[in-house]
Specification:
By secondary structure, this protein is an alpha+beta fold. Helix content is 44%, strand content 11%. The chain is globular.
């Protein structure tokens, strides 16, 4: 009986083994070690830090060089900045009044005071909020986002400086390249790439080099001692005030530093740049040799014509004499005449570049897919786009933009807002509610907020305005949400509408009314403009409707 069981088991295993392709050695084709497709391809499943920390400097250097010298990359960076940050994210304070044991009326009044105070600090034209006094908080947000896109991370410090402004809180944006281990110390379990961590991986302090690592090479003509010193900046003060803002996307567990989003594009962009240069050189060569002189002179005369002797050759002397004897001038315009047995031929280009446009389109689609933008945005080419396809593309782009704004807002912009709010409350500029928990006791409830980016924009303003009104009428959207999509604060919009309404009443002016819109098939950019373009069933339906009318 035992022998029979072994026999059945052996047959079953044989059938099971036979169900797989003979070229495979594993149930998953992607893990096969014998399939010719995977010969020489044996990447290791290593940790995030092992994959990035050693090669990070090379990646950052190449990405920054691409952004400086490649027109497509430079434009892409600017478009991402314009879509996600614009001139700066706008604060919408939304304290969690329910968690604080208060009501929504208090939350609305308190939020207006907070937003007004924040604008005073963030948009001060004297730029007190910037340590270097070169821009507003919106400008610093744009700078941080640029570093995030190119370097994969951004870094900022909070400082307390008395410069004469109403607030002492100010922000210093730091080049992430300055975040490194002191004196080139090797990475360890608790110190990696300048980030000092506790046993759980939470940051305790950041080691920031006082000078950029490349400045000592000769950028300023001499080497400075500070270029070789580091400052240890604790992540938080003893009472919990955040001192370092380090924002990056975590793509893998246990990741310490960010990785550029453009890392997968480096090879493609580099190859495309070389291809562009070769195409331009080929075009220049074709243009430079636009015409040639064809002759049937014998070899001796040809060699004589191309002689390197200082004295003119016999052919040149004969040609010069011929030109003097046979000048051809019409109205002060001299028309050259060729020597005997010479004729002028114009070259035709044998380099039509038939695949160049296709390659460039493929290249731009690759960039668009990696960057989260639409192909039309990257290529700045909308000639083959109609309303429906544009809306479909922008809906997908909008998902990316909203995600990017939320992530950057909560992890980079909100910490800066919280730093200011803490000082404003301590100074008594923002009143605290009676009977409610203290600021540090209920920190998440007080700093709760959303961030509005640049306007979403319109493809068809009339249609989209009608759709927004319909969503609000159906109860599936709010004025707050619709205004936020256009980068507007609904409170400010309502206040302005109230002022304009009162002014019209004072001046006995009628309120503007929405004009009636006739429903016309030609109003649909995607609809057929000619009845002949309709199929037979649609034409019959139109005829029946007319007969019935």
């Amino acid at each position: 009986m035992l022998g029979l069981a072994k026999t059945i088991t052996g047959k079953f295993r044989g059938l099971l083994a036979g169900s797989f392709d003979s070229r495979r050695s594993t149930p998953y084709v992607g893990a096969s070690r014998t399939d010719p497709t995977f010969f020489g391809w044996n990447p290791q499943a290593i940790s995030a830090d092992a994959a990035t920390l050693d090669d990070r400097e090379a990646l950052v250097g190449r990405v920054r060089d691409i952004a400086r010298n490649n027109g497509w990359a430079s434009g892409l960076l600017q478009k991402k900045l314009d879509n996600v940050i614009g001139s700066g994210l706008t604060l919408q304070s939304e304290p969690d009044w329910l968690a604080l044991g208060l009501d929504d009326a208090w939350a609305d009044e308190w939020s207006q005071k907070v937003e007004a105070g924040y604008r005073t600090w963030a948009n001060d034209p004297r730029n007190f909020a910037d340590v270097r006094r070169r821009g507003t908080i919106g400008a610093l947000q744009g700078l941080m986002y640029r570093h995030f896109v190119l370097d994969g991370e951004c870094l900022a410090l909070s400082l307390w400086l008395n410069r004469g402004g109403p607030f002492k809180t100010c922000i210093q944006v730091v080049d992430p390249q300055r975040l490194s281990n002191p004196n080139g110390e090797a990475n360890s379990e608790r110190l990696r790439a300048g980030v000092e961590m506790d046993r759980y991986g939470a940051p305790l302090a950041y080691h920031i080099r006082n000078g950029h690592p490349q400045d000592h090479i000769g950028a300023f003509g001499r080497e400075s001692f500070k270029d070789w010193t580091w400052e240890r900046v604790p992540a938080f003060t003893p009472h919990g005030r955040q001192q370092v803002i380090h924002y990056y996307d975590v793509a893998q567990a246990d990741q310490t530093r960010g990785v550029s989003r453009w890392a997968p594009l480096i090879k493609l962009i580099r190859t495309s740049t070389k291809y562009d240069d070769l195409e331009v050189q080929a075009a220049i060569v074709n243009a430079a040799f636009a015409a040639v002189i064809e002759t049937d002179m014998d070899e001796e005369n040809i060699l004589d014509a191309f002689s390197s002797e200082i004295q003119p050759s016999k052919v040149e002397q004969a040609r010069a004499a011929y030109g003097k004897q046979h000048p051809l001038i019409i109205q002060d315009l001299r028309i050259p005449r060729l020597f005997a047995r010479e004729k002028l031929n114009f070259n035709q280009s044998h380099h039509p570049n038939s695949v160049y446009t296709l390659f460039q389109t493929h290249f731009l689609r690759h960039i668009a897919a990696c960057s989260g933008l639409a192909f039309e945005q990257v290529a700045m080419n909308w000639e083959k786009t109609n309303y429906s396809s544009a809306r479909a593309a922008l809906v997908e782009v909008y998902k990316f933009v909203v995600r990017e704004q939320d992530s950057f807002g909560q992890r980079a912009a909100t910490p800066m807002f919280a730093l200011w709010l803490e000082e404003a409350i301590d100074r008594g500029m923002i009143p605290m509610p009676k009977g409610a928990p203290g600021f540090h006791e209920a920190f998440p409830a007080y700093v709760r907020c959303t961030w509005m980016g640049p306007p979403r924009g319109w493809v068809d303003p009339l249609k989209e305005a009608q759709a927004a009104a319909a969503r609000q009428a159906a109860g599936i959207s709010t004025q707050k949400a619709e205004c936020a999509q256009q980068g507007r604060n609904y409170r400010e919009v309502n206040a302005q509408l109230a002022r304009e309404k009162q002014q019209r009443e004072d001046l006995s002016l009628e309120s503007p009314a929405m004009p009636a819109i006739a429903q016309d098939p030609e109003d649909d950019p995607d609809g057929p403009e000619d009845p002949d373009e309709l199929d037979g069933e649609d034409q019959r339906q139109i005829g029946e409707d007319r007969d019935g009318a």
